Amino acid sequence: MKKVVIISASLRKNSNSDILAKEFEKGAKTAGNEVEYISLAGKKIGFCVGCLACQKTQKCVISDDAAQIADQVKNADVLVFATPIYYYEMCGQMKTLLDRLNPLYPSDYAFRDVYLLTTAAEEEESAMDGAVKGMQGWIDCFPKSRLAGVVRGVGLNDAGEAEKHTELLKHVYELGKQV
User: Which CATH number is correct for 3-177, 3.40.50.360, 1.10.10.10, 3.30.390.50, 3.10.310.10?
Assistant: First the structure.
């Protein structure tokens, strides 16, 4: 059994990336894993101020919801990030959270496999390339971890539209079962 932490970055109700995250969660639970689901909706996460105090203390000087999320991320075996794609990149709240996970850099983090679930109105899978590159850059700072999988949900514009894409949902569910 692995400890899986899923972070859904979309703030939109019934968002397509959240639908993918929930499907991954179902698969991971079916396989017997312990799953924690975190939605960034309603969370207070401020911008990193770049002071780098966290590199010595492994704690951020900002007191908000990012500290608890960082603890959950640190102790996970598997991380799953779900984001809508805005302007060919991950959404701002996800990037802000990744920046705020800087206290983990010098820590003895547990995570090894990282998955990225993306959705975009754009029809071309290349629309996600910026987000994949950004996630890979974050992962590169954690040498014991790797990008284990990427899902590119294309052509999904309206809220809830992903529910109609049964092959995509099946793929995400099976990916969750394989962790």
Answer: 3.40.50.360
**Tokens 């790797």 found at:** 146
Find the helix or strand (DSSP H, E) in which 66 lies: helix 66-74
The two beta strands, 34-39 and 78-86, are unpaired
The whole-model pTM stands at: 0.97
Digit-coded pLDDT (tens) for 116-161: 999 999 999 999 999 999 999 999 999 999 999 999 999 999 999 9
Nearest to 144 by CA among 100, 116, 108, 115: 108
Beta-strand (E) ranges in 69-134?
78-86, 89-90, 113-119
